[in-house]
Amino acid sequence: METSRLPLSSSIRGKLISAGYTSLSSISSLSSTDLARDVNISEAEAFDILKLANQMSGNGSTCLINGAKNAWEMLHEEESLPRITTSCSDLDNILGGGISCRDVTEIGGVPGIGKTQIGIQLSVNVQIPREFGGLGGKAIYIDTEGSFMVERALQIAEACVEDMEEYTGYMHKHFKASQVQMKPKDILENIFYFRVCSYTEQVALVNHLDKFISENNDVKVVIVDSITFHFRQDFDDLAQRTRVLSEMALKFMKLAKKFSLAVVLLNQVTTKYTQGSFQLALALGDSWSHSCTNRVILYWNGDERYAYIDKSPSLPSASASYTVTSRGLRNSSSSSKRVKMM
Amino acid sequence: MGREENHSDAGDGDGDRMANKLIGEIGLHKRISNIFAARNIITAKDALSMTEFELMELLDIGMKETKSAVKLISEASSPPCLSALSLLQRKAENEHLSGHLPTHLKGLDSALCGGIPFGVLTELVGPPGIGKSQFCMKLALSASFPTAYGGLDGRVIYIDVESKFSSRRVIEIGLKSFPEVFHLKGMAQEMAGRIIVLRPTSLAEFTGNIQELKDSILQNQVKLLVIDSMTALLSGENKPVAQRQHQLGWHISFLKSLAEFSRIPIVVTNQVRSQNRDETSHYSFQAKLKDGFQEQTSTYDSHLVAALGINWAHAVTIRLRIIKVAKSPMSPPLAFPFHITSGGISLLSDDGTELKGPGINTIHAQGHSDVINFHGEV
């Protein structure tokens, strides 16, 4: 590997290369004192370079390549991953049981299709206790549009608690089950709400989330409603926008893996010219499309709301209908035959 | 960065309070903050508009130092965290700040939980002559009323782009709809005196107007902002459609944050235009879903769509679609179709002239375009 691939400032990199240290192996055998003298930098700087070089070349790892896992281990990990239910079983079915943790899922659709509703529903559902088959986690809700309605969250939380109580009542008849401890207020207490007013704040918050989540255990879902809004209004330089967005997407992915949480990015739609006609497509362009693991598109089919799996490494393309009721997301009434595998 | 400057100048409102945090005041190591200053990276916005790698290259410092600097800057400029519960409590405490402006249309008011909500952008869409301006004038009037009569007892800023505002008509509406108030001596003059009309002739002038407004809204007891219409502002500009819509981006953000931070309702009207090729409601994958896919049912006239495009539509919190149903098999004298939007709620329409009062008989659910019918009766 070459020295130029190390994440170093250009002046130091220049010094290294002009001193003849072009490959990593040429550096890694040196002591920091030697390196400092040869390259004419301080010893502390030399020490950092050596540390970086060691990390990059993966010394000291028992595995073939540092940080690698074999497919068998991954399978085990994936199977044990919890999923967050959407409260709509048809939708859960096509999602393989719900929104998966450790992944970034993008959900997009036209205005009024129910993106925010899904966001609120997930931030409530993530808190369903383990005894009820949930995750017992907490939620972070990042609101960039001001569309989070706390009254609506309360409504959905109340319905969720009622459902759990009903379930407990049923279980009691058969065998002993735990009481529902949870109150709708507790659910609201565990939704951490951030109101973001510019893309700077959005970038800053995403950078800061790592620390925030380390300090607040059990955050299992991060919802961004919507990822698009500020980036569509304020950015003039599209290439720059793409770079900043991809860095943000990478950070979301890191968060998802590091804390085993689900990241749900809500996206707006725009029109796109393809094959001679204009069609709807999710905003932010093609390179953004690569940055989410799963992508779900919500759309109207006649009078019914449908969700379609547009992209997923593990799930087949499928669509399912859903409705938005006063109690939250539910199966659409005439649902049974609606699930379509393609 | 140069190109962004005009935007940040305009956007230096409350909405950008965090973005303009000075890097020099964040508490970075003196040496590092000097390097930032030397490269002319002054605010958090400057620093965070780049990727960490670009920043590292520009500053010519190590990745580790860049990362820790970015971390500190990010922490300092992150918005504060609130739990949804405290949000709810705060809302309850500020009930007077999160109220509604009644439209005096019973069905519509109940659908909107009391009227046009404070703090968000509400849009009226409809074809020409349907009564958008009439609706706005009536709203303006009711906002200027004393609280005792269900008004907001404040001033109204009416941005009349299409020159449709008529004081004579306002007084007429007042006399007809609120005789108990208007027949008090001097009332008509006082109420009409509270409605301040602006007539910008270009988008630039409009931009200036709303920026000026930002500072004066709170001092001057302004309780409602009406913009009639947003579309007309753009049609004057001689630019291709896509570019015009992009221009509005800044206005969308600004109006939204203006509404939010001053806690007043903002009502804008939007024209309809015939659907052109770039307006579509299908995704490419929908072509593949052959069976079970029905043609999108048109809400009223499939060739009419709201002007200003989808980007604008994402931004409005409530969209009220005004439709006149001249003849209907359900046969009430007036029909009020409404529409559900990102805010979860929706709209009705009145038939342009005086709204005859309330009395819902039926609600027909037709997916996302529901119809509420009203019986006419004063």
From TrEMBL, chain A:
GO molecular function: ATP binding; ATP-dependent DNA damage sensor activity; crossover junction DNA endonuclease activity; four-way junction DNA binding
Protein name: DNA repair protein RAD51 homolog 3
Main location: nucleus
Keywords on record: ATP-binding, DNA damage, DNA recombination, DNA repair, DNA-binding, Nucleotide-binding, Nucleus
Listed GO CC annotations: Rad51B-Rad51C-Rad51D-XRCC2 complex; Rad51C-XRCC3 complex; replication fork
Residue runs in coiled coils: none
Physiological role: Involved in the homologous recombination repair (HRR) pathway of double-stranded DNA breaks arising during DNA replication or induced by DNA-damaging agents.
Domain RecA family profile: from-to ranges: 80-269
Family: Belongs to the RecA family. RAD51 subfamily.
Protein source organism: Thlaspi arvense (Field penny-cress)
GO BP terms in the entry: meiotic DNA recombinase assembly; reciprocal meiotic recombination
Gene3D superfamilies the record matches: 5' to 3' exonuclease, C-terminal subdomain, P-loop containing nucleotide triphosphate hydrolases
CDD domains, per database record: Rad51C
Localization (cell): Nucleus
UniProtKB/TrEMBL annotation, chain B:
SMART domains: AAA
InterPro entries from the UniProt entry: AAA+_ATPase, DNA_recomb/repair_RecA-like, HHH_XRCC3_RAD51B, P-loop_NTPase, Rad51_C, RAD51B, RecA_ATP-bd
One Pfam family linked to the record: Rad51
Record's subcellular location: Nucleus
Chief localisation class: nucleus
Keywords tagged on the record: ATP-binding, DNA damage, DNA recombination, DNA repair, DNA-binding, Nucleotide-binding, Nucleus
An annotated GO BP: double-strand break repair via homologous recombination
Entries under PROSITE patterns matching the protein: RECA_2 (PS50162)
CC annotations in GO: Rad51B-Rad51C-Rad51D-XRCC2 complex; replication fork
Residues of the signal peptide: none
Span of domain RecA family profile: 97-272
Molecular function as annotated in GO: ATP binding; ATP-dependent DNA damage sensor activity; double-stranded DNA binding; four-way junction DNA binding; single-stranded DNA binding
Keyword Endoplasmic reticulum belongs to the record: no
Annotated family: Belongs to the RecA family. RAD51 subfamily.
PANTHER family given in the database record: DNA REPAIR PROTEIN RAD51 HOMOLOG 2
Name this polypeptide is given: RecA family profile 1 domain-containing protein
Source organism per UniProt: Thlaspi arvense (Field penny-cress)
Biological classification of the source: Eukaryota, Viridiplantae, Streptophyta, Embryophyta, Tracheophyta
